[in-house]
Amino acid sequence: MASNGAGPANSAAPVTTSVNHTEKPDKFNGLDFKRWRRKMLFYLTTLNLARFLTEEVPTLKEGEQNAESVSTVEAWNHSDFLCRNYVLNGLADVLYNVFCENKTAKELWKSLDQKYKTEDAGDKKFLVGRFLDFKMLNSKPVISQVQELQLILHDIHAEGMTLSEFFQVAAIIEKLPPAWKDFKNYLKHKRKEMNVEELIIRLRIEEDNRNSERRLFTPNFAKANVVEHGDKYNAKRKPRPSGKDSKLGARKGTFKKKFVGKCYNCDGMGHKASDCKKPKRAREANTVDDISHDVSNINLCAVVSKVNMIGSNPREWWIDTGATRHVCSDKEMFATLQESEYGEKLYMGNSATSEIKGQGKVVLKMTSGKELTLNNVLYVSDIRKNLVSGSLLNKHGFRIVFESDKVVVSKNGMYVGRGYVSDGLFKLNVMAIKPKVNKVNPSAYVLESPYLWHGRLGHVNYDTIRRLINLKNIPTFQIDKSHKCEICVEAKQTRSSFKTIERNTEPLDLIHTDVCDL
């Protein structure tokens, strides 16, 4: 019986095993599930509890009540209880409440895999996008940027997407900054193949050489703490002394620094215009008067290239990190809208105010296929651009990365959408939504007719007007083909012919004889 009793004791022995040299992994908060999973699996392995993540629950057969089987099941349940709670204690408090209902360690581990491995499925596309969009800048060290690119390549390999060594070398060479154009062409034309380590060594040597040359040619680098002798005698005022005195050198008290300003004669550095050796410029004292005299005869005109028309605001959305609220100018883009009754005001950065006409929810369909729901969006009809508050997105767990003239929005490691720089601002890539057509025109002073647009567009033909309507460049209206424009008809009329006359074409037709005065 002693030997039989050793079975349950041995199965329960791993429960009491303590490993002090193993550090417990950090709490999982929803990010980097693969890394946390590997750490937790290693931690449970050191505790001899990893097998309970895959084993089924042992059960007693019907009628089996011997002490050995009962103790074995109890020991297994106790070890499974420890394994399950080790995993639960490795979760953040928010996730603990979600997964604590799982009864066994295997169910808990399976639930975590189903939830977060599925969400990580989009990481492959996100990593490929990061790799393709990565660009090196002249303002950063090349080696540090190559290391960032290597981290992206490592993540790609970790996802199971294998890239050859030659492809990695060619990609790193192609992504070198513009200042390295000559060295990039040199590497492209090398016939001998290199691996990534050899390429990094060459790049490090080239960067060190460039840094040393930059320090060497820094202005005043070789002239630090050097005092030069000044010339006491001016060449224009007094002649230089000759004879014995000229060989004695500079007198005491005549030391001064060399002139480091700009020459107004040749625009060179290091000498004055009075000491310039190049031909003197012509005097231009009266240039300002002549120019001001000619300016009065110039016809100046200004052309307005942008018109802010009420009701014609673009439907793009712009990320503004300085905005504290989401703002929309188009009423039709709201999924739900509650009209404002208290006359609230929206304060701009220049102390100007705009009336808030309502507040609601806007759903943006991103080009990635995901929908971004903006809550508590202010409806301000007279604002020129629709704004997405960067601070509110960050407050609700979104991650916004600005890099290389683009912005990437993600949440909990999941890619949401992106945008690009346009006119100095970051514009989100939002799928175009067909606007609703207002059948009732709010203005009583606007009358749309084909004759009006025919005159506005320089009396073009009606086929051109129909194409403009199809392109949504002008409002929609009916065209009456039977109508004739009086101005066009008058302009296309031909001149009427002159009256017919008789011409004398026969001989002696023009001879007149006076027979009455014979």
Written account of the structure:
- The chain has 518 residues and is an alpha+beta fold.
- Among the domains are: 2-120, no CATH class; 134-201; 317-428, Beta Barrel (Cathepsin D, subunit A, domain 1); 450-491, no CATH class.
- Helices cover 34% and strands 12% of the residues.
- It is built from 15 helices and 12 strands.
- The longest helix is centred in the N-terminal third of the chain and has 23 residues, at 67-89.
- The termini are far apart.
- Shape summary: extended
- Indicate the low-confidence ranges by residue numbers: 1-20, 220-236, 244-250, 285-312, 434-447
* Alpha-beta content class: alpha+beta
Portion of residues within helices: 25-40%
Helix count equals: 15
Structure summary, number of beta strands: 12
Order of neighbouring strands in the sheet with most strands:
8-1-12-11-10-9
Query: What is the rounded Rg?
Result: 43 Å
Kindly estimate the percentage of residues that lie in beta strands according to DSSP. 5-15%
Please render the helix and strand layout as text.
Blueprint: H1 2-12, H2 33-46, H3 67-89, H4 93-99, H5 105-119, H6 123-133, H7 142-158, H8 165-174, H9 181-188, H10 196-216, H11 287-295, E1 317-320, E2 327-328, E3 336-339, E4 345-347, E5 353-355, E6 358-365, E7 371-379, E8 386-389, H12 390-395, E9 398-403, E10 406-411, E11 414-422, E12 425-428, H13 450-456, H14 462-470, H15 486-491
Parallel strand pairs: 1-8, 2-7
Antiparallel strand pairs: 1-12, 3-6, 4-5, 6-7, 9-10, 10-11, 11-12
Summarize the structure in short.
34% of the residues lie in helices and 12% in strands. The protein is α+β, with helices and mostly antiparallel strands and 518 residues long.
